[in-house]
Amino acid sequence: MSLKIRLTRGGAKKRPYYRIVVADARSPRDGRFIEKVGAYDPMKPKDDPARVILETEKVQAWLAKGAQPTDRVLRFLDAAGLAKRPTRNNPQKAEPGTKAKERAAARAEKAGAAADSAE
């Protein structure tokens, strides 16, 4: 059985509230879980200490048992100093797409032709 430390959504419509739980990877997002290990309230300001609440002893115990945190939970664990999140690097992310490159080339060609005819 593969275990995940992940978020389950609660709260009302447009007022999300998440519990951080340990669950079987095959169970649905808001379905059955094994143990609640924290909470996350995205409606609170980022600098509020009550935004993310973790029971560190439980989290450490589950990590030792082999539970894998999801990406978002790994961010919380890294901020709390419980796990290390590897840095990511995607140099292609800032690069424009194919269509944008084609439009830029056409614009440059059109500007070059206009400059030649003006002289």
Explain what this protein looks like in three dimensions.
- With 119 residues, the protein is an alpha+beta fold.
- The chain has a domain at 3-80: S16 Ribosomal Protein, Chain: A (2-Layer Sandwich).
- It has three helices and five strands.
- The chain has helices at residues 56-64, 71-80, 98-118; strands spanning 3-12, 15-24, 35-40, 52-54, 68-69.
- Strands 4-3-2-1-5 form a five-stranded mixed β-sheet.
- β1 (3-12) and β2 (15-24) form a beta hairpin.
- The longest helix has 21 residues, at 98-118.
- The mean pLDDT is 91.
Descriptive tags:
119 residues; alpha+beta; S16 Ribosomal Protein, Chain: A; 3 helices; structural constituent of ribosome
How many H/I helical runs? 3
Order of strands across the widest beta sheet?
4-3-2-1-5
Second rung of CATH, namely the architecture of the domain at 3-80? 2-Layer Sandwich
Total strand segments: 5
Give the class-level CATH name of the domain at 3-80.
Alpha Beta
Q: Approximately how much beta-strand content do the residues carry?
A: 25-35%
Largest sheet entry: 5 strands, mixed
Structural class: alpha+beta
Short description:
This protein has helices at 56-64, 71-80, 98-118, and strands at residues 3-12, 15-24, 35-40, 52-54, 68-69. By secondary structure, the protein is an alpha+beta fold. The termini are far apart.
Write the layout of secondary structure elements.
Blueprint: E1 3-12, E2 15-24, E3 35-40, E4 52-54, H1 56-64, E5 68-69, H2 71-80, H3 98-118
Parallel strand pairs: 1-5
Antiparallel strand pairs: 1-2, 2-3, 3-4
